[in-house]
Amino acid sequence: MSTVSLGMPALPPRGFGNISETEPFPSYARRELQNDQLRANLRHATHTIRDKRLRVVSELPDWEELREAGSAIKAEAMERLPELLAQFEEQFTARGGTVHWARDAAEANRIVEGLVRATGSSEVVKVKSMATQEIGLNEYLEERGIAAFETDLAELIVQLGHDKPSHILVPAIHRNRTEIRDIFLREMPGVDPELTDEPRRLAMAARAHLRRKFLSAKVAISGANFGIAETGTLGVVESEGNGRMCLTLPETLITVMGIEKVLPRAEDLGVFMQLLPRSSTGERMNPYTSLWTGSTPGDGPKDVHVVLLDNGRTRALADRHGRSALHCIRCSACMNVCPVYERAGGHAYGSTYPGPIGAILSPLLTGVEAEENKSLPYASSLCGACFDACPVKINIPEILVHLRGEDVEARHSRPGARRLPSQFDLAMAGASWAMSDGARMGLLERGLPLGKAAAGRDGVISKLPGLGAGWTQSRDIPAPPAESFRAQWAKRAKNSADPHGIKEGEGK
After folding, report:
1. Which domains does the chain have, with CATH numbers?
2. What is the dihedral of CA 20, 23, 25, 29, to 10 degrees?
3. pLDDT confidence of 73, banded at 50, 70, 90?
4. Residue among 300, 288, 289, 293 nearest 233 (CA)
5. 222 has which bridge partners?
6. What single DSSP character describes residue 255?
7. What pairing do the DSSP bridges indicate for beta strands 226-228 and 233-238?
8. Dihedral of CA 392/398/403/409: which sign?
């Protein structure tokens, strides 16, 4: 067994792959906000998915208990990760499979290339896989003369459009059906020139195109939603049946799985098979769930491999505040409720993992001190909708605040960093001083009428000086009330002789 130093701070991966933002989020998002068609596509798609999810989740009286169970199982798996990975390797190998260990994207890509070349094939078919997108496998293989064909409909659209995925569950969510028809007409060999944008016609065109690949491919590459340590079993869930074709027809099957996907027991699937379909596609049951354990003579692929990928996961595991990000089951529920994602789109995050989960997972994998992802922890309003939607209860807002704090500390500790406090530092220190004492807070509240006087006729403050100018560049601030709640309460107590009233300036 090629061991990985689990639970200890890992060395920086030599090649991150596609988990680094290519442009700071603020500048990319500002540009995307000008794309009205993109925003319309995202709004329609995310609202449709989240409305379906709400309906099917409301049917389960024990939904919150299921969330607790899912969170507990993933926490146990992270706590026992070295032991469970060793058990998985033992069981997978005993059943005829081969296990490979990859420290980073570069090593994983080399392993997969070597396995494909050993078959003599120059083509592979692929199941939708976040892990292979993360390591940039398609681009790597193409540069070396090996063609990788995506078989998931949305992934096929992205690939034919020379595009990048923008959503974990629906990679082509930023495209509407007219745009998809145009891509098929332009890029798909042999397609009917009279093709319309009717969804059924588009799906049938993709089916005819892919059927030839399924029947001729000797090698398939997949990801994995789960790996069961107890039995050495791998699992993929999907909605179209393309995955089932990839997992059963070729002679060689190569799976790339992040090490955090391992679960302790087969019975744990009972929890996630209820959480995942409802949270992702808004379905009660997943249409296609494929499980395989090693290889079986006369049934399915003869040569079965799994590449267990680290690529920064041990680094994230060592962060006690952020390690719960590894609990993610890639359902995308957090994206579908996020107001920032809905307006900026997935490409603005630059990483394979967009949305709220990407804003924490990508920096944790690469290190928040790295330049690659330093703006992502700020790509959130901290509204908390993602935490409420997460089926395994990842507290994304709390981790975002933690990562922001780490970023500030890292910037202050860099050689040559400014030693004098910034405007923001002084403002926060002043706010802390004032708000930690009732009497001080009372003095501050006496300035409320001045704030109200600074407002315009519409009752809002549209321009602030100094540090506050950044806030008012893109938003108006409601004018403060003429009187604070504490002052109103004190007045009420005085007028009504209320024994529970407090005097202005009292309390903490």
Report:
1. 25-311 (3.40.50.10420), 315-413 (1.10.1060.10), 428-496 (no CATH)
2. -130
3. very high
4. 293
5. 255
6. E
7. antiparallel
8. negative
Tracing tokens 């090649």 back to the chain, one arrives at 15
Give the type of residue at 85.
L
Query: CA-CA distances (angstroms) from residue 483 to 200, 293, 491?
Result: 61, 68, 10
Burial class (CB in 10 A: 0-12, 13-18, 19+), 36: exposed
Judge residue 142's burial from the number of C-beta atoms within 10 Å of its C-beta, 0-12 exposed, 13-18 middle, 19 or more buried. Answer: exposed
Is residue 171 helix, strand or coil? coil
Residue 224 burial (C-beta neighbours within 10 Å; 0-12, 13-18, 19+): buried
Comparing C-alpha atoms, which of 328, 314, 292 is closest to residue 101?
314
Residue 415 has a pLDDT of 67
Q: Which helix (H) or strand (E) segment is 173 a member of?
A: none
Residues in contact with 50: Cβ distance below 8 Å, sequence separation at least 6, in sequence order: 282, 333, 336, 337, 389
CA 139: distance to chain centroid?
A: 21
Dihedral sign, CA of 159, 165, 167, 169? positive
List the single range of 116-125, 335-344, 368-377, 392-401 with lowest mean pLDDT: 368-377
Residue 5 pLDDT exceeds 50: no
Cα 283 from chain centre = 20
Q: What is the pLDDT of residue 74?
A: 98
Paired strand residues for 98 = 305
Which uninterrupted H or E stretch holds 461? strand 460-461
